């Protein structure tokens, strides 16, 4: 999730991407729409990545618990 935020900052070293839209919008006179066009997709990607990681963690915990029960013999 942090990596997604870091990529938005990457525009300051010439990487481009959605961070470039955010910076261009902040430099424009009325750039609210441009800022949102970069910020909303960036935020959505971060939230979706977090939700996906939570889901993966839950699945792995279930597998771990099942294997521990087999070892104990419950």
TrEMBL record:
<feature type="transmembrane region" description="Helical">
    <location>
        <begin position="33"/>
        <end position="56"/>
    </location>
</feature>
<dbReference type="InterPro" id="IPR051204">
    <property type="entry name" value="ABC_transp_perm/SBD"/>
</dbReference>
<dbReference type="GO" id="GO:0031460">
    <property type="term" value="P:glycine betaine transport"/>
</dbReference>
<protein>
    <submittedName>
        <fullName>ProZ/OpuBD</fullName>
    </submittedName>
</protein>
<keyword id="KW-1133">Transmembrane helix</keyword>
<keyword id="KW-0812">Transmembrane</keyword>
<keyword id="KW-0472">Membrane</keyword>
<keyword id="KW-0813">Transport</keyword>
């Amino acid at each position: 999730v942090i990596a997604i935020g870091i990529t938005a900052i990457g525009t300051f070293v010439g990487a481009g991407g959605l961070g470039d839209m955010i910076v261009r919008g902040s430099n424009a006179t009325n750039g609210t729409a441009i800022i949102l066009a970069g910020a909303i997709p960036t935020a959505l990607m971060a939230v979706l990545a977090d939700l996906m990681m939570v889901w993966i963690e839950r699945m792995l915990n279930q597998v771990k618990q099942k294997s521990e029960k087999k070892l104990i013999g419950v």
